[in-house]
Amino acid sequence: MYYRLKLLDINSMNSGAAIPSTKREDFYSASIKVPDLPTQERIAGVLAAYDDLIENNRRRIGLLEQATRLLYREWFVHFRFPGFDTTKFVDGLPAGWEVRKVKDLLTRLKSKPKVRKDEYQAYGQWPCVDQGQDFIGGYTDNKEAIYHDSLPLIVFGDHTRALKFVDFPFARGADGTQIIQSNEERLPQQLFYFSLINVDLSNYAYARHFKFLKDQDIIVPTEEIGKNFANRAKTIFDQVRTLRDQNQKLAKARDLLLPRLMDGRLSIPE
């Protein structure tokens, strides 16, 4: 039933004016055609296999990101970085390290056109990154909206506080997003990202959070330590990007299979 309902064109049931919406009675009265139960079970088995692969990749991504967050805390919270045992500490910080405000570390980037959520495509040439829970919200073919220089970049969700490290060409979702880039050589983007992840903004409840983020303190290490961490994190991000690419291909293949299986154009042997 779940897979069959995904084929419903809910947009055509829109009964809202300013805000798109669908009446419950319209949804409940929609007619759907389904195959016999044994065929449904075979179809569900095929599609569930794709979903299982996607979910497994998501878990692997989560474990990779967690490992890097732990490495960050080991180096920059507990100060057990390479060579810490022979490093001189001054006022609680390793010599050559300093505390800086986020706002003093930001590069001002040339703005690109934003892509509204109602302009997202299911498939397209470039992904749209917004502040939603999914890493990629949709796709666009608008080349004028694409950030492709100075990668990687960090996308911050002003409302959701979501942080996304983006190391591929992308378009920026229009709903409350900020683009972040470091202006400090000692703070590569990989390290900047995990420094921001470590900032706690949960006490500000529902608000525009970027103004609070900019006023936070983060640690800037020596260039050697910063680059060392960035190189390790880059290896992890490369693996994460590969897994996300796999998931995009798996989801696209699953979604192309779904209508063909449902209407009988493709059959599954018993």
Architecture overview:
- By secondary structure, this protein is an alpha+beta fold.
- It has 3 domains: 1-29, no CATH class; 33-85 and 222-270, Helix Hairpins; 98-220, DNA methylase specificity domains (Adenine-n6-DNA-methyltransferase TaqI, Chain A, domain 2), CATH 3.90.220.
- 38% of the residues lie in helices and 14% in strands.
- A 4-stranded mixed sheet has the order 5-4-9-6, with no helix packed on it.
- Strand 7 and strand 8 form a beta hairpin.
- Helix 3 packs antiparallel against helix 6.
- The longest helix has 40 residues, at 37-76.
- The protein starts with a helix and ends in an 8-residue tail after the last helix.
List the helices and strands and how they pair.
Elements (H helix, E strand, L loop, with lengths): L1 H4 L18 H5 L8 H40 L12 E2 L2 E2 L3 E4 L24 E4 L8 E3 L5 E2 L5 E5 L5 E4 L3 E3 L4 E4 L8 H9 L12 H4 L3 E4 L2 H40 L8
Parallel strand pairs: 4-9
Antiparallel strand pairs: 1-2, 3-11, 4-5, 6-9, 7-8, 7-10
Helix pairs in contact: 3-6
What keyword list fits this structure?
270 residues; alpha+beta; Helix Hairpins; Adenine-n6-DNA-methyltransferase TaqI, Chain A, domain 2; four-stranded mixed beta sheet; three-stranded antiparallel beta sheet
Topology, number of strands: 11
Please state the average pLDDT score.
Answer: 88
N- and C-termini, Cα separation: 20 Å
The helix-and-strand class reads alpha+beta
Can you summarize the main beta sheet?
A: 4 strands, mixed
Radius of gyration: 23 Å
Which stretches are low in confidence, meaning pLDDT under 50 for 5 or more residues running?
none
CATH superfamily of the largest domain: DNA methylase specificity domains
Number of helices: 6
Helix content: 25-40%
* CATH architecture descriptor name of the largest domain: Alpha-Beta Complex
Described by the principal axes of the CA atoms, the overall outline is elongated
Number of domains: 3
CATH class of the largest domain: Alpha Beta
Pfam family, one: Methylase_S
Keywords: DNA-binding, Restriction system
GO molecular function, one term: DNA binding
Family: Belongs to the type-I restriction system S methylase family.
